Amino acid sequence: MRVQAQYVWFDGKITKWEDAKIHIATHALHYGTSIFEGLRGYWNGENLLIFRLNEHVERMFKSAKILGVKVPYTQQEVRNAIIEAVRANNFKEDVYIRPILFVSTQTVALDVRDLDTSLAVFAFPFGKYLPPGGIRAAVVSWRRVHNTMLPVMAKIGGIYVNSVLALTEARSRGYDEALLADINGYVVEGSGENVFVARNGALYTPPVHQSILEGITRDTVITLCKDIGIKVEEKPITREELYTADEVFLVGTAAEVTPVIEVDGRAIGDRKPGPITTKIATLYADVVRGRIEKYSRWVTPVY
Ligand code: PMP
Protein backbone atom coordinates (compact mmCIF):
# COMPACT_ATOMS: atom_id res chain seq x y z
CA MET A 1 0.00 0.00 0.00
CA ARG A 2 1.59 3.25 -1.12
CA VAL A 3 0.55 6.24 0.93
CA GLN A 4 0.15 9.84 -0.10
CA ALA A 5 -1.17 13.22 0.95
CA GLN A 6 -0.85 16.79 -0.34
CA TYR A 7 1.28 18.30 2.39
CA VAL A 8 3.71 17.21 5.09
CA TRP A 9 5.36 19.03 7.97
CA PHE A 10 9.14 18.94 7.52
CA ASP A 11 11.65 20.73 9.78
CA GLY A 12 9.26 23.51 10.70
CA LYS A 13 7.62 24.09 7.34
CA ILE A 14 4.56 22.79 5.54
CA THR A 15 6.02 21.23 2.39
CA LYS A 16 4.46 19.59 -0.66
CA TRP A 17 4.48 15.79 -0.37
CA GLU A 18 6.70 15.39 -3.46
CA ASP A 19 9.28 17.87 -2.16
CA ALA A 20 9.85 16.14 1.22
CA LYS A 21 13.14 14.41 0.33
CA ILE A 22 16.39 13.42 2.02
CA HIS A 23 19.92 12.80 0.75
CA ILE A 24 21.22 9.23 0.21
CA ALA A 25 24.12 9.88 2.64
CA THR A 26 21.68 10.48 5.53
CA HIS A 27 22.80 8.55 8.64
CA ALA A 28 19.31 7.18 9.40
CA LEU A 29 18.97 5.60 5.97
CA HIS A 30 22.08 3.49 6.58
CA TYR A 31 21.83 2.63 10.27
CA GLY A 32 18.12 2.79 11.11
CA THR A 33 18.66 5.74 13.45
CA SER A 34 15.16 7.10 13.34
CA ILE A 35 12.54 7.44 16.05
CA PHE A 36 8.98 7.23 14.91
CA GLU A 37 5.44 7.13 16.17
CA GLY A 38 2.16 5.97 14.72
CA LEU A 39 -1.00 7.79 15.74
CA ARG A 40 -4.55 7.70 14.51
CA GLY A 41 -6.95 10.55 13.89
CA TYR A 42 -10.65 9.68 13.90
CA TRP A 43 -13.26 11.73 12.02
CA ASN A 44 -16.42 11.86 14.13
CA GLY A 45 -18.59 13.70 11.59
CA GLU A 46 -17.65 17.12 12.96
CA ASN A 47 -14.01 17.07 13.88
CA LEU A 48 -10.90 14.98 13.54
CA LEU A 49 -9.76 13.63 16.90
CA ILE A 50 -6.17 12.55 17.49
CA PHE A 51 -6.01 9.70 19.99
CA ARG A 52 -3.60 10.02 22.93
CA LEU A 53 -1.42 12.68 21.30
CA ASN A 54 0.38 13.51 24.56
CA GLU A 55 1.38 9.92 25.24
CA HIS A 56 2.70 9.37 21.71
CA VAL A 57 4.85 12.52 21.92
CA GLU A 58 6.09 11.54 25.38
CA ARG A 59 7.11 8.12 24.04
CA MET A 60 8.93 9.80 21.15
CA PHE A 61 11.02 11.82 23.61
CA LYS A 62 11.77 8.70 25.68
CA SER A 63 12.84 6.86 22.53
CA ALA A 64 15.17 9.74 21.59
CA LYS A 65 16.67 9.70 25.09
CA ILE A 66 17.30 5.95 24.85
CA LEU A 67 18.96 6.26 21.42
CA GLY A 68 20.89 9.30 22.67
CA VAL A 69 19.83 11.81 20.03
CA LYS A 70 18.65 15.39 20.34
CA VAL A 71 15.10 16.46 19.66
CA PRO A 72 15.45 20.06 18.45
CA TYR A 73 11.87 20.86 19.55
CA THR A 74 9.82 20.95 22.73
CA GLN A 75 7.02 18.44 23.29
CA GLN A 76 4.51 21.24 22.68
CA GLU A 77 6.18 22.04 19.34
CA VAL A 78 6.04 18.38 18.30
CA ARG A 79 2.34 18.16 19.28
CA ASN A 80 1.70 21.30 17.21
CA ALA A 81 3.65 19.88 14.25
CA ILE A 82 1.47 16.74 14.33
CA ILE A 83 -1.73 18.81 14.40
CA GLU A 84 -0.48 21.09 11.61
CA ALA A 85 0.50 18.13 9.38
CA VAL A 86 -3.10 16.92 9.56
CA ARG A 87 -4.71 20.35 9.35
CA ALA A 88 -2.71 21.36 6.25
CA ASN A 89 -4.42 18.58 4.29
CA ASN A 90 -7.89 19.45 5.60
CA PHE A 91 -8.64 15.74 6.12
CA LYS A 92 -12.25 14.89 6.93
CA GLU A 93 -11.81 11.14 7.29
CA ASP A 94 -9.87 8.70 9.48
CA VAL A 95 -6.11 9.11 9.15
CA TYR A 96 -2.87 7.51 10.27
CA ILE A 97 -0.17 9.93 11.38
CA ARG A 98 3.54 9.19 11.21
CA PRO A 99 5.97 11.57 12.95
CA ILE A 100 9.61 10.64 12.35
CA LEU A 101 12.72 12.09 13.93
CA PHE A 102 15.84 10.93 12.16
CA VAL A 103 19.60 11.42 12.28
CA SER A 104 20.00 13.65 9.27
CA THR A 105 23.75 14.33 9.09
CA GLN A 106 25.33 13.13 5.84
CA THR A 107 28.03 10.81 7.18
CA VAL A 108 29.12 7.20 7.49
CA ALA A 109 30.26 7.66 11.12
CA LEU A 110 28.36 5.68 13.77
CA ASP A 111 28.61 7.76 16.99
CA VAL A 112 25.37 9.76 17.08
CA ARG A 113 26.21 12.19 19.86
CA ASP A 114 27.07 15.23 17.79
CA LEU A 115 24.91 14.51 14.79
CA ASP A 116 21.88 16.53 13.69
CA THR A 117 18.30 15.35 13.63
CA SER A 118 15.36 16.32 11.47
CA LEU A 119 11.68 15.97 12.23
CA ALA A 120 8.98 15.23 9.68
CA VAL A 121 5.29 14.43 10.10
CA PHE A 122 3.01 13.03 7.45
CA ALA A 123 -0.54 11.76 7.59
CA PHE A 124 -2.75 9.92 5.14
CA PRO A 125 -6.28 8.47 4.94
CA PHE A 126 -6.37 5.10 6.65
CA GLY A 127 -9.04 2.50 7.33
CA LYS A 128 -8.68 -0.91 8.95
CA TYR A 129 -5.14 -2.30 9.20
CA LEU A 130 -6.14 -5.94 9.89
CA PRO A 131 -9.46 -7.69 9.10
CA PRO A 132 -11.73 -6.68 12.04
CA GLY A 133 -13.71 -9.94 11.94
CA GLY A 134 -10.70 -11.89 13.21
CA ILE A 135 -7.31 -12.93 11.91
CA ARG A 136 -5.20 -16.04 11.46
CA ALA A 137 -1.79 -15.70 13.12
CA ALA A 138 1.37 -17.80 13.21
CA VAL A 139 4.18 -17.93 15.76
CA VAL A 140 7.06 -17.26 13.37
CA SER A 141 10.63 -18.54 13.49
CA TRP A 142 12.15 -15.10 14.11
CA ARG A 143 12.35 -14.31 17.83
CA ARG A 144 11.55 -10.92 19.32
CA VAL A 145 14.86 -9.16 19.82
CA HIS A 146 15.77 -9.08 23.52
CA ASN A 147 16.13 -5.77 25.34
CA THR A 148 19.74 -6.59 26.25
CA MET A 149 20.47 -6.46 22.52
CA LEU A 150 18.35 -3.54 21.37
CA PRO A 151 16.15 -1.21 23.42
CA VAL A 152 12.73 -2.50 22.34
CA MET A 153 10.97 -0.01 24.62
CA ALA A 154 12.07 2.65 22.12
CA LYS A 155 10.37 2.96 18.75
CA ILE A 156 13.60 3.02 16.76
CA GLY A 157 13.49 2.45 12.99
CA GLY A 158 16.28 -0.16 12.92
CA ILE A 159 14.56 -2.36 15.48
CA TYR A 160 11.67 -2.76 13.03
CA VAL A 161 13.73 -5.05 10.80
CA ASN A 162 12.68 -7.65 13.41
CA SER A 163 8.99 -6.90 12.65
CA VAL A 164 9.58 -6.72 8.89
CA LEU A 165 11.11 -10.22 8.87
CA ALA A 166 8.40 -11.61 11.15
CA LEU A 167 5.43 -10.26 9.19
CA THR A 168 6.98 -11.15 5.85
CA GLU A 169 7.42 -14.72 7.05
CA ALA A 170 3.82 -14.92 8.35
CA ARG A 171 2.34 -13.45 5.15
CA SER A 172 4.44 -15.67 2.91
CA ARG A 173 3.07 -18.68 4.82
CA GLY A 174 -0.50 -17.43 4.22
CA TYR A 175 -1.20 -15.93 7.65
CA ASP A 176 -2.51 -12.43 8.39
CA GLU A 177 -0.13 -11.61 11.23
CA ALA A 178 3.01 -12.81 13.00
CA LEU A 179 3.31 -13.58 16.68
CA LEU A 180 6.84 -13.42 18.07
CA ALA A 181 8.27 -15.43 20.91
CA ASP A 182 11.13 -14.02 22.96
CA ILE A 183 14.44 -15.86 23.37
CA ASN A 184 12.90 -17.95 26.18
CA GLY A 185 9.99 -19.09 24.03
CA TYR A 186 7.26 -16.93 25.60
CA VAL A 187 4.93 -15.30 23.10
CA VAL A 188 5.42 -11.58 23.59
CA GLU A 189 4.10 -9.51 20.67
CA GLY A 190 2.67 -9.23 17.20
CA SER A 191 4.79 -7.58 14.50
CA GLY A 192 3.15 -4.25 15.39
CA GLU A 193 0.81 -5.10 18.24
CA ASN A 194 0.72 -6.15 21.88
CA VAL A 195 -1.06 -9.38 22.70
CA PHE A 196 -3.80 -10.29 25.20
CA VAL A 197 -5.28 -13.70 26.01
CA ALA A 198 -8.49 -14.44 27.88
CA ARG A 199 -8.78 -17.52 30.12
CA ASN A 200 -11.69 -18.14 32.48
CA GLY A 201 -12.94 -14.54 32.27
CA ALA A 202 -9.61 -12.84 33.04
CA LEU A 203 -7.08 -11.26 30.68
CA TYR A 204 -3.33 -11.81 30.55
CA THR A 205 -0.70 -9.80 28.72
CA PRO A 206 3.11 -9.95 28.82
CA PRO A 207 4.79 -7.52 31.27
CA VAL A 208 6.71 -4.52 29.92
CA HIS A 209 10.01 -5.95 31.10
CA GLN A 210 9.62 -8.89 28.74
CA SER A 211 11.11 -7.11 25.70
CA ILE A 212 7.93 -5.50 24.39
CA LEU A 213 7.00 -2.05 23.23
CA GLU A 214 5.05 -0.31 25.99
CA GLY A 215 2.00 0.08 23.77
CA ILE A 216 -0.36 2.99 24.22
CA THR A 217 -3.31 0.85 23.11
CA ARG A 218 -2.19 -1.79 25.63
CA ASP A 219 -2.36 0.89 28.32
CA THR A 220 -5.76 2.05 27.02
CA VAL A 221 -7.15 -1.50 27.15
CA ILE A 222 -5.75 -2.12 30.66
CA THR A 223 -7.35 1.15 31.86
CA LEU A 224 -10.70 0.38 30.21
CA CYS A 225 -10.71 -3.14 31.69
CA LYS A 226 -10.04 -1.77 35.16
CA ASP A 227 -12.96 0.63 34.72
CA ILE A 228 -15.42 -2.05 33.56
CA GLY A 229 -14.29 -4.70 36.03
CA ILE A 230 -12.32 -7.13 33.83
CA LYS A 231 -9.23 -8.45 35.62
CA VAL A 232 -5.95 -8.01 33.72
CA GLU A 233 -2.75 -9.67 34.88
CA GLU A 234 0.68 -8.96 33.39
CA LYS A 235 2.47 -12.29 33.10
CA PRO A 236 4.52 -14.28 30.57
CA ILE A 237 2.41 -16.29 28.09
CA THR A 238 3.53 -19.67 26.76
CA ARG A 239 2.70 -20.95 23.29
CA GLU A 240 0.41 -23.66 24.67
CA GLU A 241 -1.45 -21.09 26.78
CA LEU A 242 -2.10 -19.24 23.55
CA TYR A 243 -3.38 -22.36 21.76
CA THR A 244 -5.76 -23.20 24.61
CA ALA A 245 -6.94 -19.66 25.41
CA ASP A 246 -10.66 -18.84 25.33
CA GLU A 247 -9.86 -15.69 23.34
CA VAL A 248 -6.79 -13.98 21.90
CA PHE A 249 -6.61 -10.43 20.59
CA LEU A 250 -3.97 -8.01 19.37
CA VAL A 251 -3.93 -4.30 20.18
CA GLY A 252 -2.12 -1.40 18.59
CA THR A 253 -2.76 2.01 17.13
CA ALA A 254 -3.08 0.58 13.60
CA ALA A 255 -4.66 -2.77 14.60
CA GLU A 256 -6.94 -1.21 17.25
CA VAL A 257 -8.49 -4.29 18.95
CA THR A 258 -8.21 -7.19 16.49
CA PRO A 259 -9.55 -10.66 17.39
CA VAL A 260 -7.26 -13.62 16.65
CA ILE A 261 -9.40 -16.60 15.64
CA GLU A 262 -6.65 -19.03 14.72
CA VAL A 263 -3.02 -19.58 15.83
CA ASP A 264 -0.76 -22.01 13.95
CA GLY A 265 -3.79 -23.72 12.41
CA ARG A 266 -5.56 -24.19 15.77
CA ALA A 267 -8.95 -22.55 16.32
CA ILE A 268 -9.12 -20.09 19.21
CA GLY A 269 -12.46 -20.59 20.99
CA ASP A 270 -14.96 -21.38 18.26
CA ARG A 271 -13.09 -19.50 15.55
CA LYS A 272 -15.16 -16.34 16.13
CA PRO A 273 -14.39 -13.13 18.05
CA GLY A 274 -15.16 -13.92 21.70
CA PRO A 275 -17.39 -11.90 24.08
CA ILE A 276 -14.58 -10.16 26.01
CA THR A 277 -12.75 -9.19 22.81
CA THR A 278 -15.99 -7.88 21.28
CA LYS A 279 -16.84 -5.88 24.39
CA ILE A 280 -13.40 -4.24 24.50
CA ALA A 281 -13.28 -3.61 20.72
CA THR A 282 -16.70 -1.90 20.85
CA LEU A 283 -15.76 0.23 23.84
CA TYR A 284 -12.42 1.16 22.25
CA ALA A 285 -14.20 2.28 19.05
CA ASP A 286 -16.46 4.58 21.10
CA VAL A 287 -13.58 5.96 23.15
CA VAL A 288 -11.36 6.89 20.16
CA ARG A 289 -14.22 8.77 18.48
CA GLY A 290 -14.76 10.83 21.63
CA ARG A 291 -18.19 9.35 22.30
CA ILE A 292 -17.51 8.71 25.99
CA GLU A 293 -17.11 11.84 28.10
CA LYS A 294 -15.08 10.03 30.75
CA TYR A 295 -12.23 9.48 28.29
CA SER A 296 -12.39 12.83 26.49
CA ARG A 297 -8.96 13.63 27.98
CA TRP A 298 -7.50 11.17 25.48
CA VAL A 299 -8.69 12.95 22.33
CA THR A 300 -7.32 16.15 20.79
CA PRO A 301 -9.46 17.95 18.15
CA VAL A 302 -7.56 19.12 15.06
CA TYR A 303 -10.03 21.74 13.81
N1 PMP B 1 4.37 -3.52 19.53
C1 PMP B 1 5.00 -3.12 18.42
C2 PMP B 1 6.23 -3.85 18.00
C3 PMP B 1 4.48 -2.04 17.67
O1 PMP B 1 5.09 -1.65 16.55
C4 PMP B 1 3.30 -1.40 18.09
C5 PMP B 1 2.73 -0.28 17.27
N2 PMP B 1 3.25 0.97 17.66
C6 PMP B 1 2.69 -1.85 19.26
C7 PMP B 1 3.25 -2.90 19.95
C8 PMP B 1 1.46 -1.18 19.78
O2 PMP B 1 1.78 0.11 20.27
P1 PMP B 1 0.72 1.27 20.27
O3 PMP B 1 -0.49 0.74 20.94
O4 PMP B 1 1.38 2.35 21.08
O5 PMP B 1 0.45 1.65 18.87
CATH topology (fold) name of the largest domain: D-amino Acid Aminotransferase, Chain A, domain 2
- Number of DSSP-assigned strands: 17
Q: Can you tell me the overall shape?
A: globular
As a percent range, the share of strand residues is 25-35%
Low-pLDDT runs of 5+ residues are none
CATH architecture label of the largest domain: Alpha-Beta Barrel
Structural class: alpha+beta
Radius of gyration: 19 Å
Q: Which ligands, by name, code or SMILES, are bound?
A: 4'-deoxy-4'-aminopyridoxal-5'-phosphate
Mean pLDDT score: 97
Name of the level-1 CATH class of the largest domain: Alpha Beta
So, the CATH homologous superfamily of the largest domain?
Answer: D-amino Acid Aminotransferase, subunit A, domain 2
Profile the largest sheet: 9 strands, mixed
End-to-end span in angstroms? 28 Å
Count of spatially separate domains: 2
Question: What does this entry show, briefly?
Answer:
This protein is of the alpha+beta class. 25% of the residues lie in helices and 28% in strands.
Account of the 3D structure:
With 303 residues, this protein is of the alpha+beta class. It has 2 domains: 7-125, 2-Layer Sandwich (D-amino Acid Aminotransferase, Chain A, domain 1); 135-288, Alpha-Beta Barrel (D-amino Acid Aminotransferase, Chain A, domain 2), CATH 3.20.10.10. Helices cover 25% and strands 28% of the residues. It has 7 helices and 17 strands. It has helices at 27-31, 53-67, 75-87, 161-172, 216-228, 239-243, 275-288; strands at residues 7-10, 13-16, 34-36, 39-43, 48-51, 95-103, 117-125, 135-139, 177-181, 187-190, 194-199, 202-205, 232-234, 247-252, 256-263, 266-267, 299-301. The strands form 2 sheets. Strands 8, 9, 10, 11, 12, 13, 14, 15 and 16 form a 9-stranded mixed β-sheet that branches. Strands 1, 2, 3, 4, 5, 6, 7 and 17 form an 8-stranded antiparallel β-sheet that branches. A hairpin with a 2-residue loop joins strand 15 and strand 16. The longest helix has 15 residues, at 53-67. It is globular. The model has no long low-confidence stretch (mean pLDDT 97). It binds 4'-deoxy-4'-aminopyridoxal-5'-phosphate (PMP). Residues 38, 163, 189, 192-194, 213, 215-218, 252-253 line the site of 4'-deoxy-4'-aminopyridoxal-5'-phosphate.
